[in-house]
Design brief:
The protein has 70 residues and is mainly alpha-helical. It is 77% helix and 0% strand.
Length: 70
């Protein structure tokens, strides 16, 4: 049960990369402007990665639904 802080951090980084690239692609498709995509990426990565990490750490404090592993 449980995960290290570094594992949770790397999960956050990898997921943010996938999600941010998706968002940038959508913005580029709608606006055709790379600058808007870059602005979105900077804000999206910095804010959502922090919130994801805090979310994961919060869930580590909740035992409900957790299964012990050997």
């Amino acid at each position: 049960m449980g995960q290290s802080s570094s594992r949770i951090f790397m999960k956050a980084v990898s997921w943010r990369a996938i999600a941010t690239l998706t968002g940038v692609a959508i913005i580029l498709a709608i606006t055709g402007e790379f600058e808007y995509g870059a602005i979105f990426a900077a804000a999206d990565i910095s804010l959502k990665m922090v919130f994801y990490y805090l979310h994961e750490r919060g869930w580590e404090m909740i035992e409900w639904g957790a299964v012990a592993t050997d």
